[in-house]
Design brief:
Blueprint (H helix, E strand, L loop, with lengths): L2 H16 L3 E3 L3 E5 L22 E7 L29 H7 L1 H5 L1 H6 L5 E6 L8 E2 L3 H4 L9 E5 L10 E4 L8 H4 L3 H6 L10 E4 L4 E5 L5 E2 L5 E6 L5 E2 L3 E2 L2 E2 L11 H7 L2 H4 L4 H4 L4 H5 L4 E2 L8 E7 L6 E7 L4 E4 L5 E7 L1 E4 L2 E4 L7 E4 L1 H4 L3 E5 L5 E7 L15
Antiparallel strand pairs: 1-22, 2-3, 3-4, 4-11, 5-12, 6-9, 6-11, 7-8, 7-10, 13-14, 15-16, 16-17, 17-24, 18-23, 19-22, 19-24, 20-21, 20-23
Length: 401
């Protein structure tokens, strides 16, 4: 190990020890040039539009993933540690430098990183109909697949179109009917491709789980998302609101030779038609919060909000005003303070203060009892985000067939 890496390692070990196993994280803002922002992320109005980069419409949480944008800084999407040292360090660099201390010795032997990405997305218009490539297709362009899940927090305006299109009508899965999508992809002029999908109303304190390969068009509710560690996608809808989307985003993660040989038809080969046309889509993908019975204490309780997969998982912790909650988990996680204020293992936390909203809790700290105190006059609400295989006992939906 060279001197620079040794210094970084020593710095990280020293800071983690001083913070008793918990790192503060800075907020991470991500721009998208295809979709205007809903302006609900807490930034001043003048800061949402960032020129050729587009609009700040996403906040990534505890991210070790780089945003795959055509225009933007080279480190866009990466979260930085909030440390009292001169040299800036990203969470990605920290995980790569001291994996055993952050992820645990055993977990770090079988996992090369945190393996998940949490974010808040905030769009003025419904996100264009798109899907995320499965492993078989993402690997062709040296990327990870992207399974994901949504939770719609309470207390936020739902926007102009609070409904999400998921999958396709069951009849569209028949090979001859899939062809109906091709003219829309070739002409690339409007949003009429949505006629082949079904819309589901978005409600506060509710959510959905979406495996890779399923087309979807998320509605305008401010959305908390947890997903695999990837920014892979293919946009299927040419126009969103009043804006025409660059057609390059249809082929963003398609090999050049496949595009030249098959044209728009290659996109249909990447869709998971069986899951997309599931007649019990709602029953198999709807994920309202599930109370964790063993979590109930006088001071509060936890719910699963991201479940039905072991690729990632997430919880909502609510601590009552003036009371304390003893938190214990199975491994490393990052968190976002959504409402209220308090102390998390002695660390001041407060919603609305970007410097006090995010923490990374190391494995050895997470598996021990952590005291969470609500020092405010309203419930303290904290969201926890876990990577693959940390919660093998996460609830699974019994399949409807």
């Amino acid at each position: 190990m060279n001197r620079t890496k040794t210094n970084t390692k020593n710095n990280l070990e020293d800071q983690l020890a001083k913070a008793n196993g918990i790192f503060r994280l800075r907020p991470t803002w991500v721009a998208r040039n295809s979709m205007p922002a809903g302006q609900r992320l807490g930034l001043p109005e003048s800061q949402y539009y960032v020129g050729e980069r587009g609009w700040i419409s996403e906040r990534w949480l505890g991210s070790t993933t780089k945003a795959d944008n055509l225009v933007g800084p080279s480190d866009e999407g990466l979260t930085y540690l909030n440390l009292p040292i001169q040299h800036e360090l990203s969470l990605k660099e920290a995980v790569e430098t001291i994996p055993d201390l952050l992820m645990g010795k055993e977990y770090s032997k079988t996992h090369s990183g945190l393996g998940r990405l949490a974010k808040i997305f905030d769009m003025r218009d419904r996100i264009a109909f798109h899907f995320h490539q499965q492993m078989k297709d993402a690997s062709l362009v040296e990327r990870n697949p992207k399974e994901e899940a949504y939770y719609f927090p309470e207390g936020v305006d739902m926007g102009l179109h609070p409904e999400t299109f998921f999958g396709v009508h069951p009849s569209i899965t028949e090979p001859q009917n899939r062809e109906k999508l091709i003219p829309h992809l070739i002409e690339w002029k409007d949003d009429q491709i949505l006629q082949y999908s079904r819309a589901y109303q978005q409600y506060p304190d509710d959510g959905f789980h979406i495996p890779a390969g399923i087309p979807h068009a998320p509605g305008t509710a401010l959305t908390l998302e947890l997903q695999e560690d990837s920014d892979v996608f293919a946009i299927l809808q040419a126009k969103s609101g009043n804006d025409l989307i660059p057609k390059e985003l249809l082929f963003k993660d398609v090999r050049k030779e496949d595009r030249e040989k098959f044209g728009e038809r290659i996109i249909l080969d990447q869709i998971d038609w069986e899951l997309s046309g599931d007649p019990f889509f709602y029953e198999n993908r709807h994920t309202p919060p599930r109370l964790i019975q063993s979590s109930i204490q006088e001071g509060g309780q936890e719910h699963w909000i991201f479940y039905n997969t072991t690729k990632f998982s997430g919880k909502k912790l609510v601590v009552k005003p003036g009371l304390e909650y003893l938190s214990i988990d199975a491994g490393v996680y990052n968190l976002l303070v959504w409402q209220g204020e308090g102390l998390f293992d002695g660390h001041q936390v407060k919603a609305g203060d970007f410097d006090l909203e995010e923490l990374l809790v190391s494995h050895d700290k997470a598996i021990k009892m952590i005291r969470v105190k609500n020092t405010g006059n309203k419930p303290l609400v904290i969201f926890k985000f876990f990577g693959p295989d940390i919660n093998p006992d996460v609830p699974m939906i019994k399949p409807h067939r």
